[in-house]
Amino acid sequence: MSVKTDIVSALSTAIALVLLALLILSALHVMTPPWAVVGSYSMVPTLEIGDIVILVPPPASPSQLLGKVVVYTPPGIPWFEIVHRVVKVQGDHIVTKGDANPVPDVWKITIHNVRGVVVLAVPHIGLLALAVKTAMSGSPGGVVLCMLGLLYMIVLYFLSKIVEH
Fold it and tell me: How far is it, in rounded angstroms, from Cα 3 to Cα 17?
């Protein structure tokens, strides 16, 4: 194995570990990153469970959000985030709705509730973060999913080492 291959391997491993740590920290609400993980089917077919959405700060005017997919926190539930589309603007309030939902959301949302506007979605990368979040809530299914995800990553790591030799 050459020095160049060793450097690339070490760098890619470091990047993967940093991204994994950031996903876990965001799932545990230790930090607020510029992304969110989709946790329900309410935005199908636009977004799926486990997709990571990359966010930019919201604009100053609610009218600029019409038609955009946003991440917001409902009033009175600061630990909960929803990824839905803005379907109507009523003065200072926006009305949101999941693309797969038959009716709009019930909350009165202002621009201050909006954490960000979705500019990019990365499919399925957040499944491990959702499993960790579920595991930390005490669900046995989440623990199993988390362990399977870690086992999968370990197997892939060792298979890549075998293939290199």
Answer: 21
Distances from the Cα of 158 to the Cα of 13, 21, 153, angstroms: 12, 20, 9
Q: Are 31 and 53 in contact (CB under 8 A)?
A: no
Query: Is the model's pTM score more than 0.70?
Result: no
The CATH T-level fold of domain 3-164 is Umud Fragment, subunit A (2.10.109)
- Does residue 162 have a pLDDT over 80? no
pLDDT in tens, 53-106: 999 999 999 999 999 999 999 999 988 999 999 999 999 999 999 999 999 999
Residue 67 near residue 86, CB atoms below 8 Å: yes
Residue 25 is encoded by which pair of tokens?
Answer: 């920290």
Q: In sequence order, what are the residues at sequence separation of 6 or more whose Cβ sits closer than 8 angstroms to the Cβ of residue 48?
A: 38, 41, 123, 124
DSSP state of 92: T
Q: Are strands 109-110 and 93-97 parallel, antiparallel or unpaired?
A: antiparallel
| Separation between Cα atoms, residue 68 and residue 79, nearest integer Å | 22
Task: Retrieve residue 81's tokens.
Answer: 């985030």
Domain ranges of the chain: 3-164
Position 5 scores a pLDDT of: 66
